[in-house]
Every structure is written in structure tokens, then in C-alpha cells.
Write a structure and sequence with these properties.
The complex is a heterodimer of chains A (about 110) and B (about 120). Chain A is mainly β and about 110 residues long. Chain A has no helices and 11 strands. Chain B is globular. The chains are: A mainly beta (about 110), B mainly beta (about 120). The interface between A and B is medium-sized, with 26 and 27 residues.
């Protein structure tokens, strides 16, 4: 079945450094790739998304890149701050199945002051 | 504008009991989803409803049933709770026009423990 692999599972960086989280997906029909941030005990919140007709998208300190040929996409956070500490999830749409997403296992990012 | 509202926030059940988790959205979204979140396993789709009047299974539907009561409300029912269903349950909704994927907006979750 469809699968999304996310790496690393934990990531620790110093404040001001960059952080990169990578995901690979299996369904070649996937065309939508959101990223969610989840703080402890809170709901997942969308931080950025990208569609298959775009290779890169940026929003201030956050960027996402997509390589459709290799079926992988990545989240880049620059100039990290302690408030960036959270669990980050990638997801990929499942073919053309009415908005269904399959999620990666999550990356726990810790930004040390 | 509350977004996606889930009730209850916390619940403890005994094995074999039944209960219904409620979800309502006020964003006039077409599609609604139920996920469970377990440590180290991300979010797994239980059931979803692409539009009012339709429901379909996700990755882990066994032991659950759903009802799309109207456009606003989508409930999840555990008929005979089992300890393996201890989890955090999230409801989400998205505008979804046709088959163009749109962002999903999540509720605050229901923390369910089954003893």
C-alpha cells in the first residue's frame, strides 16, 4: 500500500542553525504534500504545503522542496528559534482519493538556546 | 469562528463499553476525517467523508463506525472498546473542491483511555 517514510525521527540543533527533514513517498499519483507542526498536547497545524506542479515553495524561514522523479520532498527551516521546537509531520495525498492523506511518522525537533 | 470542535476532550472507558466521539466544523467544509495518533506512528486515517452523505474507510477502520450526520458533523463510534484503541483521536476538515486537495484543519483532539 501507500507509504510515507520520514527521517530523522529526532533532530537537535543549536539556535540559529538550519534544520532539514526529509520524506519519501510511494504513490506516484500523489500531488499534494503538506507539512504540519504539532506542539506538545496541541493539534497539528499546517505550516506549509506544496503541489506537484511546483518544485519549491518558501514562506519566510520555512521552505519545502519537491523532487517528483525521486519521490521525495523536504522541509527546510533556517535561523531556527526555540519556539520551532515541536514534532513535524509530512504527508502525501493518496492518488485522487478525495483528499486522503498518508502521514510520515514525525520528527521531533529540539532547538537549543 | 471555532473551526473544528471535538467533544469530549478526555474519556476513560472500560473494555467492552461503547461511546461516540463528536466532531463539528463551522467552516462550511465539504470533507471531514477521523485520525488516531499513537506514539511514533504519526496520524493514521480511520474513516473519512469526502462530502455529505458519503463515508469511506481509511487505513485502520476495524472496530470503528462513522456517521456524517450533516455537512457540519461527523461522529466516530466505538461499539465495543478495546485497550488497543487507547489513543488520541483527531477530527479534521477540508474544503476539497472536486478532487483538488486542500489543507486539512484539525480539532484539539480527544484523549481516550480504555482500561
Amino acid at each position: 500500500g501507500e507509504n510515507v517514510e520520514q527521517h530523522p525521527s529526532t533532530l537537535s540543533v543549536q539556535e540559529g542553525d538550519s534544520a532539514v527533514i526529509k520524506c519519501t513517498y510511494s504513490d506516484s499519483a500523489s500531488n499534494y504534500f503538506p507539512w504540519y507542526k504539532q506542539e506538545l498536547g496541541k493539534r497539528p497545524q499546517l505550516i506549509i504545503d506544496i503541489r506537484s506542479n511546483v518544485g519549491e515553495k518558501k514562506d519566510q524561514r520555512i521552505a519545502v522542496t519537491l523532487n517528483k522523479t525521486a519521490k521525495h520532498f523536504s522541509l527546510h527551516i533556517t535561523e531556527t528559534q526555540p519556539e520551532d521546537s515541536a514534532v513535524y509531520f509530512c504527508a502525501a495525498s493518496i492518488g485522487n482519493q478525495g483528499g486522503k492523506l498518508i502521514f510520515g511518522q514525525g520528527t521531533e525537533l529540539s532547538v537549543k538556546p | 469562528n471555532a473551526g473544528v470542535t471535538q467533544t469530549p476532550k478526555f474519556q476513560v472507558l472500560k473494555t467492552g463499553q461503547s461511546m461516540t466521539l463528536q466532531c463539528a466544523q463551522d467552516m462550511n467544509h465539504n470533507s471531514m476525517y477521523w485520525y488516531r495518533q499513537d506514539p511514533g506512528m504519526g496520524l493514521r486515517l480511520i474513516y473519512y467523508s469526502a462530502s455529505e452523505g458519503t463515508t469511506d474507510k481509511g487505513e485502520v477502520p476495524n472496530g470503528y463506525n462513522v456517521s456524517r450526520l450533516n455537512k457540519r458533523e461527523f461522529s466516530l463510534r466505538l461499539e465495543s472498546a478495546a485497550p488497543s484503541q487507547t489513543s488520541v483521536y483527531f477530527c479534521a476538515s477540508s474544503p476539497l473542491t472536486g478532487y483538488s486537495n486542500q489543507p486539512q484543519h484539525f480539532g484539539d483532539g480527544t484523549r481516550l483511555s480504555i482500561l
